[in-house]
Write a structure and sequence with these properties.
Blueprint lengths: L2 H14 L5 H13 L3 H6 L7 H15 L4 H5 L1 E4 L2 E4 L11 H13 L8 E6 L5 H9 L3 E7 L2 H13 L6 E5 L4 H5 L6 E6 L14 H4 L14 H13 E10 L4 H8 L9 E4 L5 E7 L4
Parallel strand pairs: 3-4, 3-6, 4-5, 6-7
Antiparallel strand pairs: 1-2, 7-9, 8-9
């Protein structure tokens, strides 16, 4: 069979199973099987595919129809124009999280250019997508990336090595900022960035099947979705230097709730930013200067 016929077959099959993006998923899976770029399939739909690879493609289509995300099937996900390894042990990086990285980079650009480097803590690093991207795109950033799951940290370390930033990224196992505070890292940080679980527990069961395939520990934020952020705020106030930035990803309606939790002795007025769909997505606040 040809590439074009397989894409058509895969698209029809996935559509019949209720997959939201059938053609895109079929193209991504076939490109993965053929070790080609997706654009190559579009340019050369006439290329014949060997029977063994047709069989592999159809098996992947079946798994996709069963709800396994494409990124877990291919082991890859693009984020900030970089390719990241992902496994079922980590949350799949989302395009909207790129906004979080961009805001941190914007903040760092405005800081003192004579400084040798900046200290950033990435809390709940998962695949390391945020930490690695920050180190990759800012040569004077040192990132301390923390996750409670060692399985996730193994993925993150691989991604740091893959993109050549292992010398400026350190991966620590622990609960939120606790490893840094226990090591005496107080009043030193320039940025705390966090994409912690923020989905309320009662909403987990109603999430799309693809999302429910991801680690629940990376999704469930407790009764109001803010359990971990509630604990992070006082820790971030201790870790950050005056003028430091706390940047968090949140869900719709959570920015105002998080703002109410701030101890205004330590924090300036927060800013809540929307994503490209007009939904609340970023919570940005500066540590007050003494």
């Amino acid at each position: 069979m040809t590439v074009g016929l397989l894409v058509t077959e895969g698209t029809r099959f996935l559509r019949s199973r209720g997959v939201a993006t059938p053609r895109l998923d079929a193209e991504l899976l076939l490109a993965f099987v053929l070790e080609k770029r997706r654009v190559d399939l579009l340019i050369h739909p006439e290329v014949e595919v060997t029977p063994d690879k047709v069989g592999v493609f159809r098996k992947l289509l079946q798994k996709r129809a069963e709800g396994v995300p494409v990124a877990y099937l291919t082991g890859e996900k693009e984020f900030m124009s970089l390719e990241f390894r992902v496994t079922p042990d980590v949350l799949i990086p989302r395009p909207e999280t790129e906004l979080l990285v961009e805001r941190v980079l914007d903040f760092l650009k405005l800081q003192d250019h004579d400084r040798h480097n900046f200290l950033v803590a990435d809390v709940g690093t998962g695949s390391g997508a945020i930490a690695v991207s920050l180190a990759f795109y800012h040569p004077r950033v040192r990132v301390l990336a923390i996750d409670i799951a060692e399985e996730a940290l193994r993925v993150a370390r691989y991604n740091a090595m893959r993109h050549g930033v292992q010398g400026r990224t350190e991966f620590l196992q622990g609960d939120l900022l606790t490893p840094l505070l226990q090591a005496g890292e107080t009043g030193k940080g320039d940025v705390v960035v966090a994409n912690l679980p923020y989905i309320p527990t009662e909403k987990i069961a109603s999430l799309p099947r693809d999302v429910r395939a991801e680690p629940e520990i990376a999704l469930d934020g407790g009764s109001d979705g803010l359990d971990l952020y509630r604990r992070l705020l006082p820790q971030a106030a201790l870790f950050l230097a005056p003028g430091g930035l706390l940047a968090c990803e949140v869900g719709p309606g959570q920015g105002g709730l998080l703002a109410e939790m701030l101890d205004h002795r330590f924090w300036s007025k927060p800013k809540i930013e929307l994503d490209y769909q007009g939904q609340e997505r970023l919570f940005i606040v500066i540590r007050k200067k003494d």
